[in-house]
Batch of 3 targets.
Target 1
Amino acid sequence: MKKSLTLLLTTCVVFLFCCTNATDEEKKEVVLKEPASVEELGELLFFDPLFSKDSSISCASCHKPAFAFADNIPFSFGVDSTPGTRNTPSAMNLADRGFFFHDGRAESLEEQAKGPVENPMEMNMPFSLAIDRLKKHKQYASFFKKHFGQLPNLENVTKAIADYERSLQTADTPFDDYMSKYDTTLFSEAAKRGRKIFNVKGKCFDCHFGPDFTGDQFRNIGLFNGKELNDSGRYVVTKKASDIGKFKTPGLRNAKVTAPYMHNGMFKTLKEVIDYYDQPDKFVSNSINRDTLLSKPLNLTAQEKADLEAFLISLTDRQFK
Ligand code: HEC
Ligand code: HEC
């Protein structure tokens, strides 16, 4: 008994000694699964905290898989618990988009990926430092050699992340079953009625159209008043007065799980979003430059609102059920 206790204690001491003697790099280096493609290499990068200054957060810390790669709070926290100033959008269904960020300041996913790494409110470090870390990492260095024939560099790292993001397309929904196979098992009568309201009375389709329910345009739905609502959106990029308060029209797939909504996360539920579109002045009476599509109240009945919500919910991929 005494002997085994001594043995146990010695093992603990040796273990402690080894661990405290390990360098920071060794302690953090986890064994990664060999990626079979560039896309899978991108997946490893997306989930790796190595991209943040203090190795505390990864892309997935804000773009959470369970919420369709969006966040479930108005403003995500970056390194040192610094909150951002805009809501984290879903990183899914972006393969066909031509603009990224709420103000569209990046025009490709490759270009977009550089943003969060260097942003002081997000990962807060020069991209070159991330590249250095990857080059020094034995496994990553060999993965990049295998898939790109080169060591990690700005181009291949952003390409891998972008390829992974392009793979995050979702079309396994009750709505898609209905459209492709007239299968109404899950596309309810309410969702059918809601689709009509979306297309006609609600005027949603005028801005949210195409396979992912976005026309990829910048529009002003009235969430800028120059006071407490002071993010001028697209104007930050173009400096054109007509762009004040315009934001990228987001796609609506999986909206059920990407709450809270809008660039500033001001609406907690889809019901609130629908109430807003129904009577924008009740929420923001002094908005500047609001689109004329929203100039009159929609006057939706309670039933119509519920139907519209049922339609939005029918755009949820089965993986989020
Ligand atoms: C601290 C939280 C945070 C981290 C970490 C983060 N993001 Fe984001 N992401 C955001 C926010 C907030 C926005 C919107 C910013 C804006 O519009 O100005 C955004 C926007 C995006 C977009 C644009 C989506 C669209 O619809 O236009 C993509 C793609 C994206 N991030 C991918 C990434 C990748 C890749 C990483 C890791 C390299 C990453 N993000 C790390 C919070 C984060
Ligand atoms: C004039 C164009 C326009 C019309 C009409 C419109 N939208 Fe939008 N929608 C937008 C824009 C732009 C945003 C992003 C605003 C922001 O980020 O502040 C948005 C955001 C949303 C969001 C939030 C998505 C997210 O992930 O944050 C939902 C949900 C939505 N709209 C549903 C609807 C519904 C339902 C209707 C019809 C009742 C509708 N929209 C009508 C342009 C429009």
Note: The longest helix spans residues 2-21.
Target 2
Amino acid sequence: MELTVLQNIKNTVDKLVKKYETADPWILCERLDIIVLISNLPVGVKGFYQLIKGRQIIHISRCISNTQMKLVCAHELAHAILHKNQNICHGVGNAKMEEEAEYFKHYLLKLEVNEISRWSRKDISNFTHLSEDMIILDF
Ligand SMILES: [Zn+2]
């Protein structure tokens, strides 16, 4: 991928994260008013992105783990942002678009990890409702 393309994707992700104050793909979809549907999809299809009557929709297979769902959500969110007007099936879009979506996903999730690693014990306690002394910071 060209360096300028990579840089543009990074900038796009940085702006999104700054504007919506999160790098969590689920929350970003919600704040961007993208409909996310978890449904029964054909075997081998983990998710896809669709634009219908101006509404952006991400479909995610219910047959995959929660972690995989999040990865698929981040990948499809990339299509929603970078390739808004296309209907794209996970892994079946053209190679360039797939590569861009994967890069977006990795960069976004890396920011999310950084975001969480800056949390204090108190932040984690507020978020998880665990008492502070139950939380061991290990990063
Ligand atoms: Zn894709």
Note: Residues 75, 79, 88, 90-91, 93, 98, 101 surround zinc ion (CB under 6 Å).
Target 3
Amino acid sequence: MLNLCPVTVVKLAPLMSLYDLEITDWQELLPKEPLFRSRQIWRAIHEDAVRPEQLTSLPKQLRNTLSQTPELSPGLRLIQLSSDDHKLTEKALFQLEDKRVIETVLMHYPERSTVCVSSQAGCAMNCSFCATGQQGYFRQLTTGEIVEQVIWAISRTRATRGEKRLSNVVFMGMGEPLANTRNVFRALTRINSDIGIGARHITISTVGIVPGIKLFASLGAQFNLAVSLHAANNEKRSSLVPINRRYPIELLTETLDSYFRVTRRRISFEWAMMDGVNDSDTDAKELISLCVPLEAHVNLIPLNPTPGWPTKGTPKTRVDEFARILENAGISASVRDNRGTGIDAACGQLAGTMLTRHSGERFYSDSSANIDVGDLLD
Ligand code: SF4
């Protein structure tokens, strides 16, 4: 126990982030403080995204104590911030307590600001076109490490965009969120209930982890589900997204059908458009046949090139033609911006570059364990 009388702070088990503390932990941490203190701090660190010691309504002595409590130091250390698209896209590279590196991307649009958060350090899914997949899996992020990325994005939006508030959160950064359901679902609750971002503004993106989709449906909330499909036949999809061998398209669509019937939430399919790989008329027709029964929406995203995957993104004219084929078949489709190509925008690419640059120095760059996805499901 740290005895910092007259303000007593109890030492807790090692934390990866102060956002790993539950409100009851705050009560334990400050045993001599009135109960309302923990609620006051809780609200401020979530709703206002401020550090506890910056909360001027707290007594000065308590603020001093909080600022010197190692357990409350930030879990994410910003080691690089880069921007592109006239500063409308910013990428943060964070080092975690154990020196792992993750990235968080903040994107501003006229009508919204969206943060793309990581849910794992690395990823075990090994999608062939993805920079994170090329690095391998290191570990699950804790609830606090996920929430802290959102807190950073709120502060950053406030600092750079004035009155504008962070409006959307997407789990499309490093990692497969539905292979870290326990921590990700807790983070969803925090982001929704404590930070105050509406469930309809929060999206989980998965490569199609069937047990995770079933659990997600059972939450009974209004969150969005996006499925990274990229191909609509098993042979092609398995070569791009190897988890398709375990959860093939028939099983995936059956699960999505149940999800749709239970939640009444429309599913989105993400389709990274790869030149000559998945952008033919046949690919479009196969995609249409999956979308119709599910009433799914399609997001077409020109692929960001990655070092380990030489294929280029589909040219814009062909992306537009592909979209027209879908629309003529009655499928709702959007062509998404390819944001941040000048700053290693592709999923995991920035962290991958840093790992290579600093190999053997400050950052961990050992090869990942050979993980079975079943080991990751909780
Ligand atoms: S695309 Fe997503 S699921 Fe696939 S390897 Fe990359 S981070 Fe993992």
Note: The chain has two domains: 18-72, 77-362.
